[in-house]
Write a structure and sequence with these properties.
The protein starts with 15 loop residues before the first helix and ends with a helix. A seven-stranded mixed β-sheet has the order 2-10-9-8-7-3-4, with helices on both faces. A two-stranded parallel sheet has the order 1-12. With about 400 residues, it is an alpha/beta fold. The protein is globular, with a radius of gyration of 21 Å. The protein folds into two domains: about 120 residues, Alpha-Beta Complex (Aspartate Aminotransferase, domain 1); about 240 residues, Type I PLP-dependent aspartate aminotransferase-like (Major domain) (Aspartate Aminotransferase, domain 2, 3-Layer(aba) Sandwich), CATH 3.40.640. The chain has 14 helices and 13 strands. A hairpin with a 4-residue loop joins strand 5 and strand 6. It binds 4'-deoxy-4'-aminopyridoxal-5'-phosphate (PMP). 4'-deoxy-4'-aminopyridoxal-5'-phosphate binds next to helix 5. The site of 4'-deoxy-4'-aminopyridoxal-5'-phosphate has 12 residues, from helix 5. It is an enzyme of class 2 (transferase). Homodimer.
Length: about 400
């Protein structure tokens, strides 16, 4: 009897497992709308022009592959902190923000979760209903009880703000609240500025611990516009955690590059928290990799590359909007006029409102892969597959 006989066969990951099924599908017309990846008009993952230039520069330097510090590359931390908080942020100048380079957004969430669990093991973590699948799994694995606050209003095709506020008001002091900073995954519905203010008031009144997850900055309305929620939290005076990911906005999925910041009341507190974050990192993977950090830093700190990056990200954002409208129009042309909300949603995803059975039929009958929840990645559409997808949706809608 081996110890490993105790290991049960786990179900495939709901999102990545779908890609495995997609890869195994031999139908040439198949379309993968499962995973959250932006694909270009040619159906391929783009290498952004600024990233390509940065890569050439970094390669030419032929630097030896030294270890980074536990908290990552100092120039990277400075560059992303300026991006997230603004170069002239008073909180940054005061030294009130502890930041570590992380393995993508997921790594940031896990480092944050481990820190929180060490400080407050009994706390409950609240995520939105629904949320990115991995939120629940990740915080559960980190040792927390995970519950949900109301978010999506299926009837109204929007956010149940009153329900959300009511659930937050009912939460015990010290509860960790995971909030999508922009481009909510999976619904594509974001709070307005005023609604954020109301949420922040409740977080403050109830003594809750906000954990902002920002994986799609730049995909909603723009880098500054999407980042405005961070300024709101800074201005609120609350302590909060913020995870960021550069997987999508730099198309650097495989480099695993992101950051975790904890905004605190004083430089002294930030120093202590940073020392704890370093223990979490050190005991997990010691220190982060260099390549992604070098690329993001080079792009963000070179004015020409930065402009090119912002422009290209802007055209990706606009193209997704065009695809959304294109899908709405194509569906309308097939007699489906109640899916216009797809054009209102933000970011890479559309919560289509299709049922699990319809999503399964899309997959089995048409080779169009989306999540059982009805989530589809509209950023993987293109003019070549849009009509096919619209036909497939029209067919499963019956
Ligand atoms: N948070 C959310 C809401 C996400 O959608 C994702 C990526 N799908 C992540 C975090 C993780 O990002 P990364 O791929 O950089 O780990």
């Amino acid at each position: 009897m081996s110890l490993f006989d105790r290991a049960e066969l786990a179900p495939a990951d709901p999102i990545l497992g779908l890609t495995e099924a997609f890869n195994a599908d031999t139908r040439p017309e198949k379309v993968n709308l499962g995973v959250g990846v932006y694909l270009g008009e040619d159906g391929k993952l783009p290498l952004m022009a600024a990233v390509r230039s940065a890569e050439e520069r970094v390669t030419q330097q032929h630097k030896p592959k030294a270890y980074l510090g536990i908290d990552g590359m100092p120039a990277y931390r400075d560059a992303v902190r300026a991006l997230i908080f603004g170069a002239d942020s008073a909180a940054l100048a005061d030294g009130r923000i502890a930041t570590v380079q992380t393995l993508g957004g997921t790594g940031a969430l896990k480092v944050g979760a481990d820190l929180l669990h060490q400080l407050s093991p009994e706390a409950t973590v609240l995520i939105s209903d629904p949320s990115w699948e991995n939120h629940r799994a990740l915080f559960t694995r980190a040792g927390f009880t995970v519950d949900a606050y109301r978010y999506y209003d299926a009837e109204a095709k929007g956010i149940d703000v009153d329900g959300m506020l009511e659930d937050l008001r009912a939460a015990a002091e010290g509860t960790v609240v995971v909030l999508h900073a922009c481009c909510h995954n999976p619904t594509g519905y974001d709070l307005t500025g005023e609604q954020w203010d109301a949420v922040i008031d409740v977080l403050r009144e109830r003594g809750l611990v906000p954990f902002l997850d920002m994986a799609y900055q730049g995909f909603g309305f723009g880098i500054a516009e999407d980042g405005a929620v961070v300024t709101k939290f800074i201005d609120s005076g609350l302590n909060f955690l913020l995870s960021t990911s550069y997987s999508k906005s730099f198309s650097l999925y495989g480099e695993r590059i992101g950051s975790l910041s904890v905004v605190l009341g004083s430089a002294e507190e930030a120093k202590k928290v940073l020392s704890q974050l370093k223990i979490v990192v050190r005991t997990n993977y010691s220190n982060p990799p260099t390549e992604g950090a070098a690329l993001v830093t080079t792009v963000l700190t070179d004015p020409e590359l930065r402009q090119s990056w912002e422009d290209e990200l802007g055209s990706m954002r606009e193209r997704i909007k065009t695809l959304r409208q294109g899908l709405v129009d194509a569906l309308a042309a097939r007699g489906i006029s109640d899916m216009g909300f797809i054009a209102e949603q933000l970011g890479m995803f559309s919560y289509s409102g299709l049922t699990k059975d319809q999503m399964i039929a899309l997959r089995t009958e048409h080779g169009v892969y989306g999540l059982d929840s009805g989530r589809m990645c509209v950023a993987a559409l293109n003019t070549g597959n849009l009509d096919y997808v619209a036909d497939a949706i029209a067919s499963v809608r019956g």
